[in-house]
Amino acid sequence: MTAVAGDPQHVFLVDGSGFIFRAFHGLPAMSRPDGTPVNAVYGFTTMLLKLLSDTDADHVAVIFDAGRLSFRNDIYPEYKAHRPPAPEDLVPQFPLIRDVVAAFNVPSVEMEGFEADDLIATYATQAVARGARVTIVSSDKDLMQLVGERVEMLDTLKNRTIRAPEVLEKFGVAPDKVVDVQALCGDPTDNVPGVPGIGVKTAAQLIGEYGDLDSLLARASEIKQPKRRETLLNNAELARISRELVRLKCDVPVTESLDSFAKRPFDRQVLADFLAAQGFKSIVARLGGSSVTPTAAPAVTAPVAVAAPVVAQYELVTSVEVLEAWVAEATRMGTVAFDTETTGLDPLRAELVGVSLATAPGRACYIPIKHDAGPAQGSLLLDPSPAAAGPDILGREVTLAKLAPLLADASVLKIGHNIKYDMQVMAQAGLTVTAFDDTMLLSYVLDGASHGHGMDELAKLHLDHDTIKFADVCGTGKNQITFDRVPLDKALAYAAEDADITLRLHGVLKARLLAERMVTVYETLERPLVPVIVAMEAAGIKVDRTALMALSAEFGGRMAELEVQIQTLAGREFNVGSPQQLGKVLFEDMSLPGGKKTKTGQWGTGADALEELAAQGHDLPARVLDWRQLSKLKGTYTDALVAQINGRTGRVHTSFALALTTTGRLSSSDPNLQNIPIRSEEGRKIRHAFIAEPGHVLLSADYSQIELRLVAHVAGIKGLIQAFHDGADIHAITAAQVFGVPVEGMDPMLRRRAKAINFGIIYGISAFGLAQQLGISNGEAKSYIDAYFGRYPEIRDFMERTKEEARANGFVLTPFGRKVFTPGIKDKNGAMRAFAERAAINGPIQGGAADIIKRAMIRLPAALAAEGLKARLLLQVHDELVLEVPVAEQDATRAVVCRVMESAAQLDVPLVAEAGFGTSWGDAH
């Protein structure tokens, strides 16, 4: 039908209930000044504001569920009967969310006895009848039955439109057959029974073969499979009931007309006053301000970015009265940046020297706690109080006692830069930091590895401000002093500036999250991970000092034996550890082929050069590679780990970098426990030196083939998806499908080749690379890759689509929305460009795997606590988690850990976690 004048052209129907639960589960707990929880209100508001600003729709309405019961409960009393009640913190937010919609001047509709989906179906039907286009803002699969030529869905979380092809991909049938498929397979979430044993794939196959549900049931006796035939005949009525439960009602007697949904402007002052009353200062600021000034802000609102120049007023705090005034000001403002100064970089060993606070751009203070340098000489105070002029400083106990309530106050947002460190320092002092933001993580989420995320660099980049450098106040090299020896005037200028710049950066960076659609990555992946990492680093892991020393002796003895062999092969003595001397032996004394000199004129003796010579059958370079491996393990682990045992805890405490890698992976250092080689005998021996405390065991849990599963998911490879659902040997299945041979009795070599391709594809392997790996010709390797793409064309489409995305945007996205930047994607140098393209293809895979295990880590502590289990998370090594578990709680802990890991993400393939126990890490893995 063609629309006539006055008819709606484009109707937006927003699934309000979907928005509510997405907002509630996607944001951490927040409260407005009176203590009412508002995280769902805040999230709903930001999503609705974004939606209204982006859409071209001329008619908009938000549709809500009116209650838990509907006409479907008359048909089937058990419908949705097992659903738990709404979370306690969500219940008081329901009416506030209705108020949000009203404040935006958007109509909302709900009706007793009907679900929101029925109302959406009714209004969509009315709009189409009048010639309008309809966009249903939801990802609810039940609404996919409405998709048609004029009806589409918009999944705002994934920023994707759902039309007929996406419905076909989801259900295996066109939208008009979705009801029939759902009637067969049922829906455990809503307690729709369906037909036992019939899944989506089988249901789609049956409907495709018989046309519709009625025809299928009428001809069920013709089905050849006995079990399936019997099941359908015995459950025909259940299928018909299920169809009535899943079929949306398109003729609800609604009282609000479609014409009343006409989009109309909202009153900015009315909206701003309402939002300010909730404490949403950052949203109010985007709307241009409000006449209402709340007394406090919820824990995740952002201050307004203040344009430069800013006049700095820094104050040295040396009296209780002045400190109390700063704490009161920070509490009143609801936002404070804070930073700690210490005597070292190890938060478990360093002493707290002082704390700085900032409550507004340019307004900051420094509270010295432990300074031995005496009073300020030529004070830099721009607004000093009389109490700050003398040499006395507050003691540790009184300072911490005054700061403790502020840092623990959930209504005050604490902003830090690399706040993990500050939280660890305060934890050592017995203080807890709640309700925080981290400008380093904000920068990392927004800009990834496109630049560094140190404060000095960000201050220059975003504020055009040159900060005082640590070396300027503490010196360098042998002359470097610890911060407690810095004169107070210099300490004030440096420390207060740190807090001030942190606050200013927060104003710039936090505002970008919503605009660049990175709220979810920050709020659900990065920020909630910080306290988990803080606890992991504090826990550390026990190592067996005696075992390490024995390994060091063993490695040293084997190195000495190898040195004798190497020098015998060389015909003379030389320093095996000297690249210069080794180069002369290899390429001058022995005249081995392929030698290349570096820019410095020395022979290149890197691993690549030695491996190439060893592959040609030369013994000496092969023995040098063995020697280097032992030397690295000895120096990096067995010797170093003994020195890194904390004298107080008796454990080793690694540090996890949260904002370093391109793909979002965590990085371990001091010591690096993520690079211990697991496939070599020596590496496994080192893992055996990591042990559990008495009465405990170590649990190692890792994801099975997580990256290959992600390839199947993001590329939509139907053959691999089905194989994973079937629990099949994925490499054997691949070999069977690519090489056309049966799985039974398969030549192990074929499976090995399929495995090499499966994993090589993730990293953009070339025919040359595959040939080198398998020891076959380039032509044969190319034929394998061509056959692979021929069998799985979806992956080539994914690769091309991903490279195009990288060229267009400069980054690719993981399935969870993280940006993986791809510098060099347009480089004129072919090699650089090819490298960037491989990185682009790998980005969604490796980045997606990093996101998934982070989601598991975030959920794990609460899941363990809910079961009363005392296990502690100790390490994360890419796809593996290591926990220390009381012996009596092994089985219960394994069940919780695997459940959390396997439910960390909903993919088109199942996630599988495998766990093992042992008294050592080596035994557990």
From TrEMBL:
Residues in the signal sequence: none
State its Enzyme Commission number(s): 2.7.7.7
Q: Give the catalytic activity.
A: DNA(n) + a 2'-deoxyribonucleoside 5'-triphosphate = DNA(n+1) + diphosphate
List, alphabetically, the Pfam families matched.
5_3_exonuc (PF01367), 5_3_exonuc_N (PF02739), DNA_pol_A (PF00476), DNA_pol_A_exo1 (PF01612)
Q: Which PROSITE patterns match?
A: DNA_POLYMERASE_A
Q: Name one GO biological process term.
A: double-strand break repair
Q: Which residues form the 3'-5' exonuclease domain?
A: 314-514
Please state every residue range assigned to the domain named 5'-3' exonuclease: 9-264
* InterPro entries referenced in this protein's UniProt entry, alphabetically: 3'-5'_exonuclease_dom (IPR002562), 5-3_exonucl_a-hlix_arch_N (IPR020046), 5-3_exonuclease (IPR002421), 5-3_exonuclease_C_sf (IPR036279), DNA-dir_DNA_pol_A_CS (IPR019760), DNA-dir_DNA_pol_A_palm_dom (IPR001098), DNA/RNA_pol_sf (IPR043502), DNA_polI_H3TH (IPR020045)
The molecular function GO annotations come to: 3'-5' exonuclease activity; 5'-3' exonuclease activity; DNA binding; DNA-directed DNA polymerase activity
Q: List the residue ranges forming a coiled coil, or say none.
A: none
Domain of life of the organism encoding this protein: Bacteria
Mind listing the UniProt keywords for this protein, alphabetically?
DNA damage, DNA repair, DNA replication, DNA-binding, DNA-directed DNA polymerase, Exonuclease, Hydrolase, Nuclease, Nucleotidyltransferase, Transferase
Q: Which residues form the DNA-directed DNA polymerase family A palm domain?
A: 683-889
* Enzyme class of the recorded protein, top EC level: transferase
Function comment: In addition to polymerase activity, this DNA polymerase exhibits 3'-5' and 5'-3' exonuclease activity.
Oligomeric and partner information: Single-chain monomer with multiple functions.
Entry similarity comment: Belongs to the DNA polymerase type-A family.
Q: Which NCBIfam families match?
A: pola, PRK05755.1
**Descriptive protein name:** DNA polymerase I
Gene name of this polypeptide: polA
